Amino acid sequence: MQQSNRYLEARPNGRRTSALIIAALLHVLLIYGLISGLGRRVIEVIRAPVEATLIQAVKPPLPPPPPPPPPKATPVKPASTPPAFVPPPEVKIPIAPVQNTITAIVAEKAPEQAPLVIQKPIEAPAVNAKPAPAAPKPRLRAGVNPIYRPPVEELLNNYPPRARREGVSGRVQLRLTISPAGEVINVIVRDSQPKKLFDRAATEYVQKFKFEKGEDEFEVDQVIEFHAE
User: Fold this and answer.
1) What is the share, in percent, of the chain residues with pLDDT greater than 70?
2) Three-class secondary structure of residue 165 per DSSP
């Protein structure tokens, strides 16, 4: 029994001692926090931020503007009535009595005009005009040869293809008219064998001939022969 009482007495003393130790530790921690700024941080964390929001007052909408006044009606003036028609006073004109008289009016005779005489123009007597003298015919010269004639190859190149195929030979007799400058100005085919087969080739060939210059025109005969090879 004595031991249990001792135990009961010693138990409250142990609790008190623990409470004192805990209180001392809390004081130590509180002092350390104040020194190191921990308390300020705890206070800042605990303190909640305060936000202020400004709420604008909502103004009521303005009333709509009043409608414009109706236009004033201009008074319509009544149409002026035209004045009443007043007839002019009747004027009486005295009329003289008409006499039954007949007046003959004779037109004056116009003066007679002289008759119009148209004179026929006098024709001048015809004069028998003499015709202009005809140009003298160029004189035919014999034994006159050209001073220039184209190469014979040109004549062979103009050989008619039909005559070349058939091996036909021929001749053309020509009369040339030579100017004073020695150039051929006219060509006449007098005869050809066969007829018209070599006329064109011979005419084109002799038109390139050149003769000696002279004072007058003259004619000369030339014969062009074609021989088939």
Assistant:
1) 57
2) helix
More confident of the two residues 63 and 199: 199
CA nearest 19: which of 27, 9, 31?
27
pLDDT tens for 102-125 read 333 333 444 455 554 555 556 665
Q: What's the CA gap between 183 and 188, in Å, rounded?
A: 15
Cα separation of 41 and 26, whole Å?
A: 18
**What tens digit of pLDDT does each residue of 137-162 get?**
889 998 899 999 999 999 888 899 98
- Full 3-state SS string of 119-135: CCCCCCCCCCCCCCCCC
CA distance 138 to 217: 5
CA 164 to chain CA centroid, Å, is: 61
CA distance 178 to 38: 148
Identify the CA nearest to 191 among candidates 150, 222, 228.
222
